[in-house]
Amino acid sequence: MEIDISHLGKHQKTTLWAGLGFGVLIVLALLGRYYTPGERVLTWQEWQIRKAERLHKTEYALLCQQMNRLAEVLAEKSPEPIRAALIARDVIAKTNTVKSPSLGQHHQAVVNAAQDVSDWGAGLLDYNTAVEAITEAYGYCEP
């Protein structure tokens, strides 16, 4: 779409650009009001806390989801060791992205459980040891 403003004078062009700029500012203000959490603009520290909380919740959900995968594979009527070992390796790879320092123990428990499941799949550990590791790691996942 083309708009021809060549016929306008210098003063009219300036007025046009000022009006467009003002319209853009109004649109940005409305978007800011819509996306601003709470009643006011957050300070830098409050924003950092919100980011950390969001990261914590996301990573916590990831760790619990991966624990569920490990538990499901061992809870089958006849669990397949090779499949369990592959899922355990995938769990370790997916949980290595956890950065939240407050989830350090939880992350380590999940990695240990996955390693034990992988070792069970390879025949290095017995089934009950793998189940115990998963049960211990489940202690970090609150309902």
What does this structure look like?
The protein has helices at 10-35, 44-75, 81-95, 104-122, 127-138. It is elongated, with a radius of gyration of 27 Å. Helix 2 runs antiparallel to helix 3, helix 2 (44-75) packs parallel to helix 4 (104-122) and helix 3 (81-95) runs antiparallel to helix 4 (104-122). The N and C termini lie far apart (56 Å). It has five helices and no strands.
How do you describe this structure in short?
By secondary structure, the chain is mainly α.
Name the features.
single chain, 143 residues, mainly alpha, 5 helices, 73% helix
Helices and strands in order:
Layout: H1 10-35, H2 44-75, H3 81-95, H4 104-122, H5 127-138
